[in-house]
Design brief:
By secondary structure, the chain is of the alpha/beta class. The strands form three sheets. It has a five-stranded mixed beta sheet with strand order 3-2-1-5-8, with no helix packed on it. Strands 4-10-9-6-7 form a five-stranded mixed beta sheet. A hairpin with a 2-residue loop joins strand 1 and strand 2. Helix 2 packs antiparallel against helix 3, helix 6 crosses helix 10 and helix 10 packs across helix 11. The protein starts with a helix and ends with a strand.
């Protein structure tokens, strides 16, 4: 009896799960996944139609081969069974059989290869595109830049809807909408009937841009450029996901493509261009605290709240911002963190945001929750930081040992900051790509640092080299070490004792091709903590 009850437990659990699922029945998402879907997505491009045809052709060929081979085998076993007195024939090396099983598979392979090659070549033909869009994978969202064609110049980030992310975090999906974990704030918008070339790359780790209804899947690799294309034949909304395991937020990186009619697309482009012009910020504009806080709250909700939480407390390995030493400390430390990322990409770089958005979100974090520092960051400071000039105080993105007393800042307008040469650091020494020799500007910066530390003989000095996250990691680390050694040598030649200099392990940055990689070609000279 006990044995019977034990066997019934799994069945009762399965029935319970099935019954509970009826309370919230899943529904098909047009343009996306369907309930009990067994076939490929309904195609909306010619390439996807050809892929469907290849899929069924090969399935039929494989089925015919299966039936033929196993049919002959089972017939032979039945017809020549021992109970009927069948005697095994003694023969080998039949020329006819050898020829047959060589020619027939060859013909089958050719029948499969010819149409498959035709489709494969067509998939990679990205020439004569009407529209070119760069899709950049970030941990964990997509960035879209319209490079050519109607809409060229538009650029935005596409992020999972905050409400759906919060629903996922809560574990209660009883009221999940049909587009659960597919809804984004800014979908990729394209015109119907136009050839769209998609250039893929990534900012941090390998991602993959996949939209099944279009029949496209292309990896996005840091430091490399790949491309694919599609021409949607129907208007509507179509969905995909990052198809490469890219980290803990991999499940929250959907792709939403909205295909519009030609007229509607033109109207959308005009509206977006007007928004872009209206939102175009003068980086030299001086903002008041209240305005920066209001804008920073929106930037935080769209880009930061998914990980750090709306209350700023973080979750699991995600560090809290409320009460954080980095947030409460020198402004330069947080600016380094948002521009360069931290923990080898666990926190991604946010350099793709505008200088005003970065200034707003940093100001928001420094003045929200229990963080009442009064510190205000202006866009001009981020303009200078992208060129290597950070505000005085603070080091690299690593957190300070203890937060400095926050400076008081009036909530009203303050003059735009000027680029001020740091006194105690960080002094930043920049190098040419692939080189470790100090040019005139780098030598001047090292000598300036030496003058300061010769006047402060009780302090030790730390040298932190930086490298980007592309190419050979070993080669980059060795180059960073050589650069730090070159800086140390000039410091000693300038009168700094060797025992005062501490060489630190190179730190990795994720640098792009937009000029920000200058930050990955530097050595910081800072006071050792």
């Amino acid at each position: 009896m006990k044995n019977i009850s034990t066997k019934l437990v799994p069945w009762s659990l399965a029935l319970t799960a099935w019954g509970s699922s009826l309370a919230h029945a899943a529904k098909d998402l047009p343009g996306g996944p369907a309930v009990n879907q067994l076939n490929l997505h309904p195609p909306v491009t010619r390439i996807a139609v050809e892929q469907h045809w290849l899929h069924w052709m090969m399935l039929i060929i494989c089925t015919v081969i299966f039936i033929g081979v196993f049919g002959v085998m089972f017939y032979s076993i039945w017809k020549h069974r021992k109970s009927k007195g069948a005697q095994a024939a003694n023969f080998h090396e039949s020329v006819k059989v050898e020829i047959a099983w060589t020619i027939i598979p060859f013909i089958i392979v050719i029948l499969i290869a010819l149409p498959a090659t035709k489709v494969l070549v067509a998939q990679k033909d990205t020439t004569n595109a009407d529209l070119t869009i760069k899709a950049t994978g970030y941990q964990w969202k997509w960035g879209y830049d319209y490079l050519t064609g109607e809409g060229a110049g538009l650029s935005y980030i596409s992020t999972l809807d905050t409400a759906q992310r919060q629903m996922s975090n809560s574990g209660d999906v009883s009221q999940a909408p049909v587009d659960y974990l597919f809804k984004v704030d800014n979908p990729l918008v394209v015109p119907v009937g136009k050839k769209v070339r998609v250039i893929t790359t990534a900012n941090d780790v390998i991602h993959s841009f996949m939209v099944p209804a279009f029949g496209i899947k292309q990896d996005a690799i840091p430091g490399f450029v790949r491309d694919t294309w599609f021409k949607a034949e129907k208007t509507g909304d179509y969905y995909g996901q990052c198809a490469e395991l890219c980290g803990k937020e991999h499940a929250y990186m959907p792709i939403h493509v909205k295909v519009l009619s030609t007229q509607d697309y033109t109207a959308w482009v005009e509206a977006e261009q007007k928004k872009l012009a209206a939102k175009a910020d003068d980086p030299s504009k001086v903002w008041v605290l209240a305005d920066l806080l209001a804008r920073g709250e929106k930037v935080y909700a769209s880009n930061c709240a998914a990980c750090h939480q709306a209350n700023g407390k973080g979750a699991g390995p995600i560090k809290p911002l409320d009460g954080s030493a980095v947030v409460l400390g020198p402004t330069a430390d947080m600016m380094h963190a948002v521009l360069e990322g931290r923990a080898n990409g666990a926190m991604p770089s946010w350099k793709q945001l505008s200088d005003t958005d970065l200034a707003a979100v940093v100001t928001f974090a420094k003045n929200h929750w229990s963080n009442k520092t009064g510190q205000l960051v202006q866009p001009a400071q981020f303009v200078a930081a992208r060129g290597g000039k950070f505000p005085e105080g603070g080091g690299s993105a690593a957190p300070a040992a203890a937060p400095e007393a926050p400076p008081a800042a009036a909530p009203e307008a303050a003059p735009a900051p000027q680029a001020i040469a740091p006194k105690a650091g960080p002094y930043q020494v920049f190098f040419d790509t692939g080189k470790s020799a100090l040019d005139d500007a780098a030598q001047a910066e090292v000598k300036k640092a030496a003058e300061y530390w010769k006047a402060h003989k009780d302090e030790k000095i730390a040298l932190s080299g930086f490298v980007d996250a592309t190419g050979s990691a070993d080669k980059n680390a060795e180059l960073a070490k050589e650069r730090a050694q070159a800086v140390a040598k000039l410091l000693m030649e300038s009168g700094i004792a060797a025992d005062r200099i501490e060489m630190r392990k190179p730190q990795t940055l994720t640098a792009g091709s937009d000029g920000a990689d200058k930050q990955a070609r530097r050595v910081d000279i800072v006071a050792a903590q």
